[in-house]
Amino acid sequence: MIFAAGRGTRLGALGESTPKALIEIAGRTMLEHVVGRLRAAGAQRVVVNVHHHGEAIERFVAAHDLGVEILVSREPEGPLETGGGLLAARGLFRREGPILLHNVDVLTDADLGALVAAHRGGGALATLAVAERETQRYLLFDDDGLCGREDRRHGARQECRPPRGAVRALAFAGVHVISPELLDLISERGVFPIVEVYLRLAGQGRAVAPWRLGDAMWLEIGNLERLAAARAALEGAGA
Q: Is residue 77 within 8 Å of residue 88, measured between CB atoms?
């Protein structure tokens, strides 16, 4: 699933006129970049949630062969965030294996097939791509997986269970894999991020595991400065 319903407000006038899914970098839209990565990881069906300029995304999907079946999950009343969006779309999944989730505003050359394989072999309910990078908000992992989060901008720290062993603060990369059973464990309703679900389930003893990006490229186009940096990196590399 590609999360593409956001309004892109941090992109200013560009975000007002163009959904992030259709912003171009190195001659391809973000949607094409991300679908290509999911397809390379083995995806045959991709669900895309839409709200902001959703009709434009749907027209683009209808006019282009992206190499996989694309299903659209509409959020007409407003973006439901990642958790609410996943809940709203749960009837569109085949549930035959792990579900790979990817934010549309993230570009990475990480081996997503290896991420899926790690999830299959690890026994966790969810496996989250993470990195050691500077950010304001971190997820906390101990020897058994997710155990909390930390917001350094506001000096807030939440533990969803007592930590076991060393605790590591890692930045979530906006790419994750879930087991299909998680879809039936979402009790939250309305607008909510999927991290809320992960923290609750981890607190109940379910395993939520980290998967490190390592040296893989990771770029996010959430604002104009980051978009310019991503374009410079990918267009300069001929991607």
A: no
Q: Residue 106: left if φ>0, alpha if ψ -120 to 50, beta else—which one?
A: beta
Tokens of 226: 């980051």
194/33 Cα distance (integer angstroms):
23
CATH number at residue 109: 3.90.550.10
14-47: per-residue pLDDT in tens?
989 999 999 999 999 999 999 999 999 999 999 9
Rounded distance between C-alpha atoms, residue 208 and residue 222, angstroms: 26
Q: Which two tokens stand for residue 94?
A: 């085949």
What is the rounded distance in angstroms from the CA atom of residue 159 to the CA atom of residue 81? 22
DSSP letter, residue 153: T
Expressed as residue numbers, the domain containing 93 is 2-236
pTM to 2 decimal places: 0.95
Residue 1 CB coordination number (10 Å): 24
Whole-angstrom Cα Rg for the chain: 17
Q: Quickly list H helices, 51-94.
A: 54-63, 81-88
CA distances from 96 to 9, 45, 50, 239 (A): 36, 11, 24, 33
Pairing of strands 218-220, 106-108: antiparallel
Contacts for 18 with CB less than 8 Å, ≥ 6 apart: 8, 53, 56
| Both structure tokens of 90 | 């749960």
Residue at token pair 């991020």: 193
